[in-house]
Amino acid sequence: MSRVLGILGGGQLGLMMILESRKLGIKFLVYDEDPEAPALRVGDGRYVGDSWKELIVKSDIVTFEFEHVNPNAISEAESLGKLRPNSLTIWLKQDKIREKVFLKDHGFPVPRFMVIKAPEDMYDAFNKFGRVVFKEPQGAYDGRGQYYVMGKSDLDKVPMKFPLLAEEFVDIYKEVSVILARSKNGEVVTYPVTENYHYNGILLYSIAPAGVNEEVANEVKEIAVSLAKTLNYIGVLTIEFFITRDGEVLINEFAPRVHNSGHWTLMGAAVSQFENHVRAVLDLPLGSTELLKPAGIVNMLGVPYDENIINKILAIPGTSVWWYGKARVRPRRKMGHVNVVANDVNELKRRIGEVLSVVYGNDLDRYIPPWSRA
Ligand code: ADP
Fold first, then answer.
1. Which sign does the torsion angle of CA 112, 371, 237, 93 carry?
2. 228 with 257: CB under 8 angstroms?
3. Is 201 a pocket residue for ligand 1 (Cβ < 6 Å)?
4. Mean per-residue pLDDT for 89-107?
5. Is 364's pLDDT higher than 80?
6. 112-168 maps to CATH 3.30.1490.20
7. Does the C-beta of 235 come closer than 6 Å to ligand 1?
8. Alpha-carbon distance 87 to 158, whole Å?
9. Contacts 24+ apart (CB under 8 A), 93-96
10. When you count CB atoms within 10 A of the terminal residue's CB, does the N or C end of the chain come out lower?
């Protein structure tokens, strides 16, 4: 009998998890509140509205592709011993303050931060850090709910909604992420470090291998593996890092799931992050994370479906397109991505540049405006 994996959340991450792994003979059930969610189209069973209970009963194991799924579904799956990874990760991700405090308390390197509970604390943070990023702790993602204060007058832009997280503004040299898969018995495989490029606070494109030296690559991988152990983690875990101009390594945040910066593994790695997540949560042997060729992705953000553009992208050597088939397009929304591979990193960067100009022309701001104007 096929194993049955239930996925809470029906977005593109679930879609790719299914399309990458059903070849293994696994059955996938998908739950999403929204009947138009992309992964519902490709699952073996569709559960919408509030029918998550039925999905949990029918699944051998339940995982999630989105941290903000119905908390009742998470606790129900966990109480039946079916949830992987565990709910600690979700609890931490529900609140950026909770996440930062946990990381700091467990000895992981993070930017200096303060918890802001009243207007006077905002001035304290400004006086202490000089340049500050204020972040709304809940419901903010892809750069939303962030306020950059580079001078005193910027403080007026920050909403007086407390608590807020205040982080020192980090002088970032590079942003990288580590994606790893960890099994129940603690076996871990890590992918080569990925370098990430953001635009207006949202991931625009990624490249593997990252342009960092071996020492830094080993350091971020070690921190990532140690965090996975601390979380008693099963599945694919992503850790985003800032590398400062002084060579310091800081955790920005982690994601308890497959991640946008790991989409390059679909073409560039022996076994993709999606398949390795499924393998890890179902206790199957983990697959090789070896980089087959320099690989990257370009996100298609806020762009409508356009066959002409897709044809132009596919004409660039080493590319492939994943269009997620979302019902509506909105500025900044992840509508699809382009995988790119090449024989060397310079060629890869050239191809990524070509893809960027086909997708966005010269007008990134039209499709990816700052979140406050989207
Ligand atoms: P989200 O959870 O919305 O993705 P993040 O906290 O990961 O938000 O921040 C998104 C991006 O904003 C980061 O990738 C980075 O480019 C920038 N950023 C976030 N925090 C800081 C900081 N303390 N200093 C400088 N840049 C930051």
1. positive
2. no
3. yes
4. 97
5. yes
6. yes
7. no
8. 32
9. 93/67, 93/254, 93/255, 93/256, 94/67, 94/68, 94/138, 95/137, 95/138, 96/135, 96/136, 96/137, 96/138, 96/140, 96/165, 96/253
10. N
pLDDT(354) > 80: yes
Query: Could you tell me if the CB of 169 is within 6 A of ligand 1?
Result: yes
Question: Under a CB-based contact definition with an 8 Å cutoff, are residues 250 and 175 in contact?
Answer: no
What top-level class would CATH report for the domain 172-367?
alpha beta
Provide the residue ranges of all domains of the chain, joining segments of one domain with +: 4-83, 112-168, 172-367
pLDDT tens figures, 153-193: 999 999 999 999 999 999 999 999 999 999 999 999 999 99
Ligand 1 atom at shortest distance from the alpha carbon of 111? 23
Whether ligand 1 lies within 6 angstroms of the CB of 252 is answered as yes
Look up tokens 């996925």; give the residue: 7
Alpha-carbon gap, residue 186 to 41, rounded angstroms: 34
Check if 9 has its Cβ closer than 6 Å to any atom of ligand 1: no
Task: Give yes or no for a contact between 86 and 32, defined as CB atoms under 8 angstroms apart.
Answer: no
List the structure tokens of 52. Answer: 């998550």
Backbone angles phi, psi at 182, to 5 degrees: -130, 135
Question: 232 vs 186, 226, 284, 336, CA distance in Å?
Answer: 8, 10, 18, 32
| Residue pair 198/204 in contact by the 8 Å Cβ criterion | yes
Residue 197 Cβ inside 6 Å of ligand 1? The answer reads: no
> Hey, is 114 helix, strand or coil?
strand
Measured distance CA(222)–CA(224) in Å, rounded: 5
Closest protein CA for atom 16 of ligand 1: 201
CATH architecture of 4-83: 3-Layer(aba) Sandwich (3.40)
Could you give the C-alpha distances from 156 to 49, 97, 136, in angstroms and in order?
41, 22, 15
Q: Do domains 4-83 and 112-168 have the same CATH topology?
A: no
For ligand 1, atom 17: residue with the closest CA: 201
Label the pairing between strands 172-182 and 194-199. Answer: antiparallel
The reply to whether ligand 1 has any atom less than 6 angstroms from the CB of 174 is no
Distance of CA 201 from the midpoint of ligand 1 (Å): 6
